[in-house]
Task: structure prediction
Amino acid sequence: MPGKSFDVVIKVVSQEGKCRRKHFVGQQWLVNSTSPGGICMSALAAMMPILAAMRYSDGALPWTKSDPDTAYVACPDHRNPAVFELKRVRK
Result:
């Protein structure tokens, strides 16, 4: 996509049960012009709409009232839920 873009840091902030990808609280990835290696594809798919909005828009997202640069996404595995924090990096 042309124009300004932002990096986004993905961080596991909660994980219950037994994650098949062995994600753990504190684990992080950087999303820039390439996709992050080692992250669960199902979790990444759940994040994609928000990642795109955070990478290519510098405005506040409607659901980020307290911090316009942070969003939270839950893993789709309801038996072993993980919650990911997405944080836009303003350079």
User: Anything to note?
Assistant: The chain has a mean pLDDT of 90. The first helix runs from residue 41 to 56.
